[in-house]
Amino acid sequence: MSSLDKKQILQDVYALIAELWCNPLDSDINKGGIDNDTKEVVTRLADIDEESAELLSTFLGEQAISEEDYIDLFELDPKCPLYLGSHSYDEPKTCANSAVSDRNEYMIELAGVYGHFGQKNNGMELPDYLPLMVDFLSLTTDSESDSVRDKFINEYLLPFLPPLRSRLEELKTHYLYLLDALDRVINIELSQQPISAQQTQQGESYVG
Known about the structure:
The chain is an all-alpha fold.
């Protein structure tokens, strides 16, 4: 399989995973069952890694939750917010503290990464919204050798997944399969980077 084929598969997988994190009733994926395009993405992913494809298939095979349950889980006063920083940083006690909080700094740095690639937040979601971050991976798959994208993955994304995973595990939700699939796909991408590119990224100074 050529490197271009692998990039296209990763791009499509990231786009699918980003969509699957969103409200299932707002997604065409859950209308009338799993569509052929989704099945094709999973099949092509299996050509790269069977385990991540199996995790994604397991998630897709579970019964979609209702809109009410989705909102209860992820949105209004959520049991498990999809904002990564909320699982790692304490919420500031006052408005004044929020401007100088660690999470605010984290989101400012994320916005800087998006800006580096010409991506602007639509203003509807905070920069640490997981579906937004995964969609960003899809949009920048061709830039896998860019050290800023590498910084995004290794410093702003992967270290923030374990606290989210712990919460999903506590809640015994099948979204745990989706998170594990995402984590595995990201690490597969990193493992397939040329050694020379990895060494270059490790030795460079990153722009924060």
